[in-house]
Each structure stands twice: as structure tokens, then as C-alpha cells.
Amino acid sequence: MVGIWGTGGIGKTTIVKAVFNSIRHKFEGNCFLADVRSKSITQLQETLLFDILGENLKVHSVDEGVGLIKTRMQRKIVLLILDDVSDSSQLKNLVPSPDCFGPRSRVLITTRDKRWLIAHEVNEVYEVKMLDDRHALELFSLHAFKRNEPPSDYLELAQHVIHYAQGLPLALIVLGSHLFRRSTEEWEATIGSCKGGPQADIHRVLKLSYDVLGQDLKELFLDIACFFKGEYSDHVKPILEACYDHKTMVIGIAQLQEKALIRIDKDDHIWMHDLIEEMGKDIVYQESPDEPGKRSRVWSEEDVDYVLTNNTGTNKVIGIQFPWLSSTISLNAKSFSEMKNLRYISMRSISFSGDIDYLSNQLRWLDWEECPLQCFPSDFQANKLVELNITSCKIRRLWEGRKNFSRLTCMNLSECESLKELPDLSGIPNLKELDLSHCTSLKKLPDLSGIPNLKKLDLSCCKSVKELPDLSGIPNLKELDLIGCTSLKELPDLSGIPNLEMLNLSCCVSLKELLDLSGIPNLEMLNLSCCVSLKELPDLSGIPNLKELDLSECESLKELPDLSGIPNLKKLDLSGCKSLKEVPDLSGIPNLKELDLSHCTSLKELPDLSGIPNLKKLDLSHCTSLKEFPDLSGIPNLKKLDLRCCKSLKELPDLSGIPNLKKLDLSHCTSLKELPDLSGISNLKKLDLRCCKSLKELPDLSGIPNLEKLNLHGCLSLKELPDLSGIPDLKELNLSGCDSLKELPDLSGIPNLKGLNLSGCRSLKKLPNLSGIPNLKELILYGCTGLVEVPDSIRFLHNLVTLNVDHCSNLIMFPRKINLKSVETISISYCKLEEFSEVGKEMGFLRDLDLRGTCIKELHPSITRLIRLGVLNLGNSKLATFPKILVKMESLRWLSLDGSDIRELDESVENLIGLERLDLSECKNLTTLPCCIYGLQNLTDLYLCNCSNLARFPTNTKSLNVDGCSLSLPKLRALYMRGCSLLSDCDFLMTLDCWETLERLNLSRNNFVSLPACLTKFFNLKTLVLNGCKRLRGIPELPPNVDLYISGCESLEEKFLKRTNRGTVIEAASPSPHVP
Asked: What are the residue boundaries of the Disease resistance protein RPS4B/Roq1-like leucine-rich repeats domain, all occurrences included (predicted)?
């Protein structure tokens, strides 16, 4: 993690944007979280998860988001930018731990406060310094004069300006833009306004550009600063135009850009710098510092709550916004009654109680998710309203009668599940978008002829709508979305909407037929997926401009009509059409690029493909009845051919007719016995032959020299590989589960190989020389039970990151010394290996070393060279002694010696200063623990279960002192000592300062008679397990709400149960050996 800190406006964001754009392509995933301070944690977590995983996950709580980040991203190599962090909780909940992302991930954090970086233990902290005078003058000149230096007659004036800007880039840019093409007199006046010495308030400097604006432009600027930063300009402009006039809005946006007060990015978002936003909000704040209801704009949670709860809003308020209110506001009928000039309301996910009987007729923008209104007030006549967005609210009807909203262009009522009907819409003739999606109680629509300019109508998931009204009154409609209208049985005449371009009827399960489509000749996309009752299609010649036709999962569709009437079709999806037995002539759709016939299980053959020469993607996966192929030479532009799970396919045709093929998937073609000559597909990059169980050999591979990925997983009959030198660009080779493979060919011909998976190759007895694949990053040998040794040539794999040799049960030899400078994970578990290598000085990146179940008796002292080692696992090994740790190891967090032959821990174990978890369970030879165990200040979990010869737990901490203070275990949360049968008492628990953080204590199956009375002071204890303590006679008073497990405590007297019954007493056995 790298922290970048410095004052606002100094260029922190500019720096991380430049870094992000230059290196983002080097990571598996990347995410730039901008303006962190102004967003909720859950919203940021959702954005992070979406950007990295590509999944639109809903995060319901901060803790849930933390859990998802930890579990879903721990192996992802990511680049994450956290821009403008203002609180330690943001870091804690977005980057919960240093290893929550995969190794070699990078996190860059910008902040104005260095404290947050120190608190989160950020590795490197970089302070962005102010510009020196030379660079400041150059930056200023670029904006003031459009050149690198000022003219000679302006030099002295320019030097005065940079003196007042104090080297702050933002101030230099704003002042330079403000002074562009101004006279020397205007320069002198500006410099005079800056006076106040070098420490002049930056807001006052930035405000110079604001002060020269006209009144309308000042108001427009404040609107953007308070409400519209980050919004799409196309969304904002109509709203602002309704407040001012068109000319003012257009000129105003342009002038604000020229003065560097705002900018519009390439994605059409309106942005302004944080300091400029703060300056604008400060101007509003100064209107009435003590009474928010007398300011023109209200946006903070505290002020919104105060104004609405106490009914202190006045006619000065023109806008009120807060997107992420966390508390409940109690509205009363008069909450908005005095805000007569209110133009903007924008609030999100707010819990309100009460009702509203007044809304301002000056409203231009009403954006209120979960609005408490059940109906708009009868006197609501906002004839300047541009956008009405009241999603997920309890509204039952909008208004009574007819309302005149002539400026309204967008109305979003999605997820208003109580809405049963719409009013007369004739008073909103300029409406362009109407979203009624998920209005599940809505049964019908009113006459639509009053909204002739409608372009988009969304009725998706309106499950109660059975029919549509006449559509001829909305002739300009371009998009009609009816997805999930499960009660809709038929469509009306479509000839009245001739401009329709998109028609989505997906999941209209009651729809049995379509009427004539000739009335919508401009249709480009038709989605009929999952229309399971649809048996046939009408004539398609009336929609000649159709580009996409989706008929996937139309299970009742048995045949297709003539396709020659849709010559511009580019994508045809017939996947899952289980009743479709044949595909008609395709020569009428020569522009087709994608054809999906996957899961068409009744399809036995394909038509001639020569009529679709532009085809690039052909998916025939899971066509289980398909036995043979037509000639492929008619589709020379094909790039992807998917034949997965075509189980009846025994052979492939000649492939030379598809020379541009890049991906060929034949996985699970279990009847395929051989491949044809591959030299005709020389551009192939990926060949997938997974689970082709009948495939006995591969053809010559030299004809596909560009191959990068070859997957032969589960090819059980494959006994040998051909020469690989003909595919020098190969990067991934998967041979896992090739049971019959006895040896590998020479690998020097594939020097670019990065991943080699040989797991489960049980007949493989040795590896070839590995020096010829120096770029290898991952080597998987899991379950190669015939393998006896890992060759010494592994030392040439300087780029190796992961080495897995788990469950190679006959492995006895490993190189005596390794120095793999890039390796991060080594796993050599459950084999006969008796000695692990000496570790070289360059192995500083190793984080995880797993030697479980080996015959290793001791570790080489060089183990301490692994300065980044986080996990060391020697469980169930023959390890008898643990090496002396002569240097402090900060990174080792998890040490597992469970089930090993360890007899004792050396006192030097206290140098494992970062250790959090120590597992010594099942160590039958362990008789005692050293006192230095109390020196492990970060230890949270200690496992000693079934250490049957452990007779003593150290109690004396007086001899352990650091600067005169006795040590304890200040972070220990869990102590598991089940089955330590030689322990006769628990006196070690009497050292209270060692156990004050303890939450879980397992002492089951032990022989002590009583417990110390001090347990009553273990205030954080939540679980105490005493199952099977047959000699235990009494239990002291316990802290409140402790779950107590006492199954099998045969000698326990009833009276002690009554004394301890302050939590839950559970007489059944605990569900887990460690955690009840």
C-alpha cells in the first residue's frame, strides 16, 4: 500500500490517475474509487466488487461487504485507488487487511490527513509538495497566456499571483483561467483582492473567479456545487434550463469550464475539484451560518434532518439533497410547507414516518427513492417540473384528474409496487421516458395519445398487466421493454409505432403468438427469450432492419420462418430451443456474425453455412444429437467455434476453410477419437480438449504456431504428447488428470510457458529438464503419485510464483537448496520427503509454505530468511524440533505444528512478533510451553487440543519484562485446550491481565476438579466448553451471557448450574472440536 497525502488542490488525484492509467493493464482487476469522502461505505464496497469481479453484488451492511472483499478477492491481483480518504473506517472497510487481495496487488490512497495512513499501517507514504516558483510560473502561464512563460510586461504581475497561490496547482489553474485575456488593470485589481499575505485563505483566492460571474451564473455554479457534481451533463442541462433559460444555461456551462470551475469528462460527467465544491458550499453556508432553513441549499444529513423534523425551512430554500441518510426522519404534514421556492429535491434510501400535504410548485427536479407519498397533494401544480423520479415508494396513485406538467420529460416510477393505475397523462405532452418497471400491482395503462413524444416505455416485470392499450398515440416510441410481463397474452397492433427500434418480450411466458410485425420496419432488436409458450413466428420480412434476434429458451418453438426478409441480421440466438430440429436456409442473412445454437438437443444436422460468410462466432455446445458437420469453408471469418459436450460427435471435418479461427472448444466430446490436420487454422490461440476421454493421440501441432492455451485435462486415453517445439508461444498447458501419460517431451521448445498443470498424472514418474521454460509462473504437481523427485533444474524457474507438490505420496527428493526469487507459495504436503531445502537469500517473496504430512524432522535455520512468510504449516509432520528464530519475523501470522512430533518450543519463539495463530493440537510429545509464549503480543488464537502429555502451562510472567512492564497476551481471543488430560488445574488462568480479551475457552475432556473464581472477571468471554470434564464438581460465577457447554460433566453438582445460568447452558455435545 502506498499513501499519497497533501493539502487539497495540490494534485494528488492527478498523480494517481496518471499512475492508474499507465499500469492498470498489468493487473487482473482494477478499480478507481473517486471522491471516497462523499460516498457511503456500502456503495463503495459495491463499486469495488463490481469493478474487480464484474458481478453486480448488493451489499446490505458494511460487515457483509468486508466479508465479500476478504473471501472473493484474496487471490485477485488488483490495482485499487482510494481517492480522497477522510476517515480510518473507509480504509478499514475497503482494505480490511494487507493480504485481503492477492500477492503483488497494489493499493494507492490519497488523503489530506496523514493520520489515516499511519493508523492503517500503510507501507510507503509520499507527501506531495507545493510547486516551486519556477514550476508554478510555468503552470500559471499555460492557463493565463497559453504558453510556458509570461510576456515580459506581465512578468512582475505573474510573480505576484504565484506568490499568493502558494504553489498550489489548483489555485494557479483557477487564477490563470480567470486572468486569461485580461488587462493589466484587471490583473492589479485581482492581486489586490488576494492580499492577506502568503497565508491567505485558498477559498478566498478561488472565489475571485466566482465573484466576477453574473448573478444567474453564480446560482448555476452553486447548483452544480451542491447538487449536480458527478451527474451526466445531458441529465443536468434540461433541469438547469428549466431554472434559467436555454441561453444562460449553455453560456454558463461554457464559461464555468473556461474558468476551470467545472469540467466535463469524456464520459459526459460534470466534475469540479473538491476545494471548488467546498468553496461553493461555504458560500451557501455563509448565507445563514446558524439557521440551515434560511440558506438557499441544504445537503448535509444533520441539516436535512433539522430542517425537515423541526419544520424550519423557509422560502429561501431552493434545493434539498442528501443521497445516503442513515437515520429516520419524522416528517409532519408541514415539513415542506414554507419552502415555496423549492426547485430541487433529491434523496435516496431514506426511512421516513409521517406524511406530506405540500410540495412546492417551483419544483424542477423531484428525485426521491422510497418517498412516503401515497398521492401527490391536490394543489401540486409544478408546471416547470422536468424530472420525476420516485422509485420504490408506496404511492397508490399519482394525482387526481389532469395535471399540466408541460416540461416533464422523464418519469420514473419503477418498483412502486402499490401503484394500481395511472392518471390522465395528456397534461405531460413532452414526456420522453416512462419507467414503470416492477410496478407489480399495475393492471392496465391509460390512453397514451396525450404523450406523443414518448421514446422509451419500460413495463418490465409488470406481472399484472394483461393487455396494452392502443399504441398509435405514441408514434415516436423507440424502446418498448416488456420483459417479465408474465400475464401478457397478446400484443396490440404495432403499426402505430413505426419508429420502434427495440422490443423486449423476454420471459413473457403467456405469449403464444406474435401479430404482424410489418408495422415496425425500423426494429433493430427483438428479444423473445424464455417465451416458453411461443410455438411459431410470423413473417419477418416486415422488419428488414433487424440486427439482433434472441429466441433463446423458447422451448416450444419447432421451426423458424424464412429468414431472407431480415438481411441485416448480425446476431441470432437460438440457445435452449429444445424442440428445434432443423435450421432453415441461412443464405438470406449474409451479414450474420454470431449464431448461438447451444443446448438445441434435438438438432441433428446443420444447413449449408456458405451463405453466412461473415460469421465470427458459432456456438454448438451441448447439441447432444449433432453427429456431423457441414463444410466449413463457407465461413472463412469464423474466430470462435464452441462444440463443448457434443457427445455424439465422432469426427471433425476439414478445418482449412476457417483460417481465422482463434478459439476451438471440444471439451467433453467424449466420442471424439482423433483430430484432423490443424495446419489450416494457423491463427488458433486456444484449444480446449478437456475430458475427451476417447482421444488417444494428438496430431502434429506445428501447424498452429500461435497457440497460447492448450487444455487436455481428463484425456484419460492420452499416453504421450507430440513434439511441442512447433507452438513456441504456448503460455498455458493443462495436463491434469491424464492418467495414462507416462512422460513429457522436451519443454525447451515452449520457452514462454507460464502455467503447467500436471495434477493427477498418476503414471508420470519423472519430470524433464525444466530449464527450458524460464518464464513459468505456476507449476502444479498435485497427486502425481508416481513422482519420486523434483529435479534440480527447478532452480532455473526464476519467475515461478506458485509450486504445488501436494499428495505426491512417493516423493522423497527435493533440491537441497532453492533460491526462487519470485515464488510466493510452496506446498509440498503429504509425501515421504525427509528434508526441506536450504533457503536462498533472494527468496524474500515467499508468503505461504505448506509442509504438512511430510517426514521432515527439522527445518534448516535459513527459514528465517523468509522475511515475508505469513503462513508456515508443518501439521502432521515428523518435525521434532523447531529452529531457533534469531531475528524478529514480523510477517509470520500463522504457525501450524498440529500433530507433529514437536517436543518443545525454543525460547526464541518470542521473535515471531507478528504471530496471530499458533496450532499445537495433537502434539503428543509436547510436555510444556516456554514462558516466552506470553511475549507473543499479537496472538489471537492458541490451539493445544489433545496435547495429552502437556502437564504444565506457564504462569510466571514476572520475569518477562519490556521496559519494566510484564508481558501478557493482550489480543488473545480463543484458547483451545480440549483433552490435555495431564493438566490437573487451571491456575494459569489466574493471571488476569493475560486473559482479559478472551472470548472462547475450551477446556473439555480434562481432569481438573474445579475452576478458578477469577473466571467471573473474564468480561469478554462468550463461550466456555467443559464437555467431558468428568471430575469437575463446581463452576464459579461467570460473566453475563456466556454460552456454557457441560455435556458429560458427571460430577457436577446441580447447585452450580443454577449459579451459572446467566447465559445459555447447553448439555449437548459441542458441534465442533474447536468452536462450540
From this structure: 877-1049
Shared domain for 109 and 6, answered yes or no, is yes
Q: Which helix (H) or strand (E) holds 711?
A: strand 709-711
Q: Is the pLDDT of residue 822 over 80?
A: yes
The yes-or-no verdict on residue 87 having pLDDT over 90 is no
Q: Is residue 69 located within the same domain as residue 34?
A: yes
In this structure, the answer to whether residues 51 and 65 fall within a common structural domain is: yes
Contact indicator for 665, 671 with CB cutoff of 8 Å: no
- Residues spanned by the domain of 183: 133-210
pLDDT value at residue 1019: 87
Question: Considering only CA atoms, which of 627, 576, 579 is closest in space to residue 606?
Answer: 627
Containing 871, the helix (H) or strand (E) segment is strand 871-873
CA distance readout (Å), 470 to 480, 544, 865, 869, 1065: 14, 24, 79, 71, 69
> Is 856 in contact with 878 (CB distance < 8 Å)?
yes
Provide the number of structural domains found in the chain.
3
Query: 739: phi > 0 → left, psi -120 to 50 → alpha, else beta; which?
Result: alpha
CATH code of the domain in which 73 resides: 3.40.50.300
Last residue of one domain, picked from the residues 96, 127, 158: 127
Q: In what order do the strands lie in the sheet with 106-111?
A: 29-33, 78-85, 106-111, 2-5, 124-127
Same domain? For 6 and 122 the reply is yes
Residue 102 shares a structural domain with residue 123: yes
Phi-psi label, residue 268: left if phi above 0, alpha if psi -120 to 50, beta otherwise: left
**How many whole angstroms separate alpha carbon 501 and alpha carbon 479?**
6
* Grid cell at residue 691: 475430458
Bridge partners for 732 per DSSP: 709, 755
CB 115 within 8 A of CB 141: no
Handedness of CA 900, 901, 906, 908 (dihedral sign): negative
Q: Which three cell numbers stand for residue 609?
A: 453455412
Cα–Cα distance, 154 to 186 (Å, whole number): 12
Which CATH number do you get for residue 231? 1.10.10.10
17 domain residue, yes or no: yes
Band of pLDDT at residue 960, cut at 50, 70 and 90: very low
Please tell me the least confidently modeled range out of 431-440, 668-677, 991-1000.
Answer: 991-1000
Q: Quick one: pLDDT at residue 967?
A: 55
